[in-house]
Amino acid sequence: MAGARRKSLQSRQVGSLLIFLCLSVGGATTIRYSVAEEMESGSFVANVAKDLGLEVGKLAARAARLVSDSNKMHFRLHRKTGDLFVKEKLDRESLCGKADPCVLRFEIVLVEPLQSFRAEVRVFDINDNAPVFLNKEPLLKIPESTPLGSRFPLQSAQDLDVGLNGLQNYTLSANAYFHLHTRFRSHGPKYAELVLNKPLDREEQPEVNLTITAVDGGSPPKSGTAHIRVVVLDVNDHVPQFSRLVYRAKVPENSPNGSLVAIVTAMDLDEGTNKAITYSLAQNPEAILQTFQMDSQTGEIRLRGPLDFEAVETYDIDVQATDGGGLSTHSKVLVEVVDVNDNPPEVMVSSVSSPLPEDSPPQTVVALFTIRDRDIRMGGKVACFLRKELPFAVKHTFGNSYSLVTDRSLDREEVSGYNITLVAKDTGPPSMSTETVIEVLISDVNDNPPVFREDSYILTVRENNSPAVFIGKVHAEDLDLGENAQITYSLLPPKSGDLSVFAYISINSENGKLYALRTMDYEAIQDFQFVVKATDGGFLPLSSQVTVRVVVLDDNDNRPLILYPLQNGTLPCNDLVPRSAEAGYLVTKVVAVDGDSGENSWLSYHLLKATDLGLFSVQRQNGEIRMLRQISERDPRMHKLIILVQDHGQPALSTTVSLNILLVDGFSEPYLLFQDPSKHSTKIKYREKFTIQEHFYDDCNFSNNLVQGRGNGSLSQPCPYEMCSATGTGNSEFRFLKRFMPNFPFPHATGEIKTEAASSLPPNSDRSKPQRSADRDQVSDDYM
């Protein structure tokens, strides 16, 4: 039943004490609430969102949280509803002791943007503690000669509650000798004195037993009792007297244990043992007994425990002097604790934005913190600054609250994080300071494009390569981090719109490796270039470009091509030499070209077989066939020569050509009779052109093709030729071979083959160092 009444009473108290006070909403907002102690965990306090003027859900969206000024948070916030609840049962006496009012302070911190609101919750006292006497059975020795009206101080009852719920009054059990008189201390609880109403007579009643009751002002009130035993002493005529009614002393709060506080003295006019005085700390609260100690013989009061001005500023000490006969007297010692600057400022960081984007503008809030100096009077003003020169600054917001903001632009690639040392320093004396380190990491933004290692790349690939062969790679680096530094490579289409580069080259988008997609042909294309783009993975991607040139290296994959004499087998290739020819006489010339380049196209001519090896010679460099000696009567009429034409590739490729040489006395028609005359009834003179384009050669019949092609051989320059012969006479006569200049443009774009000067080697020259020489002699215009 009593429990139900108490719970009902507490409910009414909670209802009456739960008051919301909002002073202002703005830059220096402080919202205030009140609750009663002993509220159960989960009890509703207030709706913070409503009081801050925020929409429901904003607290969750802005990651609201509570930051306590102390080391413990006594409330919790429901972000979705904005309701503030009691986290655990509140005990005002444990939180604040005798201090009144009891206020719990904290901050409500929001992010995006970073913002804080100060809040206070006042915890009201309920009557949950009864007055208690530390000494349940005090003993008083009072002489029987004590005059009426004498007063005897009693120990104070201790009540942890405050205000009306604290100690209010004392009552004494009914008796014939004493009544109570309640007195007040300047600092401390009320105490009672026994006042003698009737003379004591030890012979009549040597002992008086009393009951004292301490009552608080709660509803219903609570009480505590002690049983006083009064022993009546025999006559001791004089009571000790202190030299002062009140002693005063000042003690610095940083005084060590054992420091002298004050000395009290008392005198007694009696003689003998009744004159001997003993000093003691009389009925004092437990806090005083733990802080001070007294020498019973000298009256010296010294420190027993530490002093703290910020906790207690003054002490009211009762001292007692007792003579040998048991008579005692009391006095007061008022001790004033002197504040010294013994507490450095405290920095309490409530919120830090880390990591911080490197593109944060100046004045971006990085952290919120407050500074508290417990030495309010001695410490003076507190200055806050940064120990090092950093791109940050301390900005005062309101009261003792500060913010750390950016002072200039940041660059993660230069500095990826900061250990910011905040220094809070008071003015003393002596000056004291404290340092707090705030770690702020700088997050990356995509502000650096990829950079290639080279300004341009030149890669080589040998013709006749396998498809998808690796030919090289490009590499770019990005100073950013994470996705901002992940690089993707791609090929850019040419500005001309020609997408043929994608048929030749592919690139690995992840590592920049380049591959030839098809087999290269040097005779078709010698080099080409394209543009590679490197793009990072940022939200707004950055990119850079580089030009890559691919050079195709020649392989010796083309045999020498014989332009003359013709080897198509349709007409015999015969040359006529008069028997009157002298040594050195130019009989004819083997004309050949090679589609390769460099050493692979340098040609040399060799006489492989002959009817008479001593009659003819072949110039190695230009393929000219000349007489070695004068013709004799014994030399046969017809000679067959096999000429080997060989390039200088590794390995070398070669071609052979056969030709017939007739020794005649003159160039009359009977010597040219090699075909059936019945097949040719008319004489036809024809001239046709033959052409060699790129490295693919048609069936080269010198009589019906015009030579124009890229390559090296025995032709000294781009030389089209016409060959004229006569048919229908029953013989084949090579009338003339003369130069023909057609009217058409030379191909000059990359990939087309141009006719180059013939490569030749001088006699007895070193193969490893071939010399290129122009063909000085051309086939005679006429063999007449």
UniProtKB/TrEMBL annotation:
<keyword id="KW-0677">Repeat</keyword>
<dbReference type="InterPro" id="IPR020894">
    <property type="entry name" value="Cadherin_CS"/>
</dbReference>
<feature type="domain" description="Cadherin">
    <location>
        <begin position="27"/>
        <end position="133"/>
    </location>
</feature>
<keyword id="KW-0106">Calcium</keyword>
<dbReference type="InterPro" id="IPR002126">
    <property type="entry name" value="Cadherin-like_dom"/>
</dbReference>
<feature type="domain" description="Cadherin">
    <location>
        <begin position="577"/>
        <end position="672"/>
    </location>
</feature>
<feature type="domain" description="Cadherin">
    <location>
        <begin position="453"/>
        <end position="562"/>
    </location>
</feature>
<keyword id="KW-0130">Cell adhesion</keyword>
<keyword id="KW-0472">Membrane</keyword>
<dbReference type="Pfam" id="PF08266">
    <property type="entry name" value="Cadherin_2"/>
</dbReference>
<keyword id="KW-1133">Transmembrane helix</keyword>
<dbReference type="InterPro" id="IPR013164">
    <property type="entry name" value="Cadherin_N"/>
</dbReference>
<dbReference type="InterPro" id="IPR050174">
    <property type="entry name" value="Protocadherin/Cadherin-CA"/>
</dbReference>
<dbReference type="Pfam" id="PF00028">
    <property type="entry name" value="Cadherin"/>
</dbReference>
<feature type="region of interest" description="Disordered">
    <location>
        <begin position="752"/>
        <end position="784"/>
    </location>
</feature>
<feature type="domain" description="Cadherin">
    <location>
        <begin position="348"/>
        <end position="452"/>
    </location>
</feature>
<feature type="domain" description="Cadherin">
    <location>
        <begin position="243"/>
        <end position="347"/>
    </location>
</feature>
<keyword id="KW-0812">Transmembrane</keyword>
<protein>
    <submittedName>
        <fullName>Protocadherin beta-1</fullName>
    </submittedName>
</protein>
<dbReference type="InterPro" id="IPR015919">
    <property type="entry name" value="Cadherin-like_sf"/>
</dbReference>
<keyword id="KW-0325">Glycoprotein</keyword>
<feature type="compositionally biased region" description="Basic and acidic residues">
    <location>
        <begin position="766"/>
        <end position="784"/>
    </location>
</feature>
<feature type="domain" description="Cadherin">
    <location>
        <begin position="134"/>
        <end position="242"/>
    </location>
</feature>
